[in-house]
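Section: Multi-chain targets

For targets with more than one molecule, the full set of components is provided together so that the structure can be written out for the assembly as a whole rather than chain by chain. Components appear in the order listed by the source. The example entry contains four components.
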Amino acid sequence: MLTIKRLSLADAHLLLEGAKARAVQIGVPMCIAITDESGQLIAFERMDGGKITSTVIAQDKAYTAAGAKRTTESYGVASQPGSPAYGINSAIGGRLLVVAGGLPVIADGEVVGAIGVSSGTPAQDTECAQAGIDHFVRQQTGND
Amino acid sequence: MLTIKRLSLADAHLLLEGAKARAVQIGVPMCIAITDESGQLIAFERMDGGKITSTVIAQDKAYTAAGAKRTTESYGVASQPGSPAYGINSAIGGRLLVVAGGLPVIADGEVVGAIGVSSGTPAQDTECAQAGIDHFVRQQTGND
Amino acid sequence: MLTIKRLSLADAHLLLEGAKARAVQIGVPMCIAITDESGQLIAFERMDGGKITSTVIAQDKAYTAAGAKRTTESYGVASQPGSPAYGINSAIGGRLLVVAGGLPVIADGEVVGAIGVSSGTPAQDTECAQAGIDHFVRQQTGND
Amino acid sequence: MLTIKRLSLADAHLLLEGAKARAVQIGVPMCIAITDESGQLIAFERMDGGKITSTVIAQDKAYTAAGAKRTTESYGVASQPGSPAYGINSAIGGRLLVVAGGLPVIADGEVVGAIGVSSGTPAQDTECAQAGIDHFVRQQTGND
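Its structure, encoded as tokens over all components, is:
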């Protein structure tokens, strides 16, 4: 039997909170999805003005980051023409996202979930996703 | 040009809040989805212990209730064998849900969004969805 | 509660009318889709001789332009190899179109819907989509 | 943070072993799928002569049993015409299986995975799935 660590809904709220705060700062209404370590949705928010297409893309970025235990941005690099993972973007019915904005959430060296952000530029999406993780880590540490 | 009223993220939080409070009361961890009037996701929460299958079903109950402007339960009645909507449950790739737990959210006589709840019995799901709407309506009125 | 502006069916007819007139001028029978601001279909026409594959592609171009609030052509540029949105074309089950021919329809600075055209070259598709918008804007202004 | 118990691959082998032994006894080559508690595949075997359609159905039975924390057979009962879950069979793109043969695997009161069997009659499928669980439980106990 395996023992797995997984984000709780309370953890997901911290991730959402941090990401939203940054989105407000940079003035871009975002779609933000939090999944568990298996890529299954825990929480989602579309800020007023977030893009419709991003309701799916944010979830799939988080699914990809959790499921593959890596950033979606790293897949973008690995899937360029001529690179080994070329074409991987259309795998799993197109759910495997290779655009930046999906980050695994790691605790004690294990992937415990993921955050996916979409509606801005990929760089803005990543910035907000990272802000979510930073906020989560600070709160976790503060709770110790 | 049409003018449409739509739930904001703040409204969605009220719906979530009311539904979660009832779910806690009855001791059933739920998946709760809030969509806008077009069935597009605004907010989602899986309470700790909510079912994996319900992450999709809750969203699709809300999609159905918003999109068809009726409760999913009413579709259950209308789609029984021999009834006019028989077989409608597999429409839209199976997204059209005919199991109770999806309710449209109505303001000033217009559908402005929907709430879909899943993980309990259909009766429990409906009870929590209705509690979400009741809480939302109370707060809306209180804000007037 | 949010208030959203959305194309009416009468508006959609104007968009279709303008796009079809240009399609006749250039001698290319087109598929033309008009969606609302959420990417949901309002009107569609396949001119006699329009391509079967374009019945889907035109709808998805409009869905993308409305949902992401940008032209599909701009996604074509942003998703070239080495660019930030590389690989986005297969997102949302492949519905996210990055080929020119999808344009958001904007009124008073808000996206109120979109037009997607397909069957010609991407340049011809865009030309007809733009002609639809131009006709719509002229009529709107004329009505003021 | 949550702590989750999950079947290991070694556990999955025990489940497969027990199910296959019974399938050989009754002379029905089966497709057997083992998923984790999130419905994600851990192991799968199609015995020589197992049905092609069952390669998907066995997986979806296990997915359903894990994700909804109940037997697929119980869904068959609950989804009969006139019953509360009527129509649930087409949910999640038809992945929600209501035909017997999917059983959750429970350890210390928690669902830790599931087994789905297909190719025989639903009663035979269930018999083999249960044989898999019985074998797993005996070995687990024996290891204590």
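The mean pLDDT of chain A is 96.
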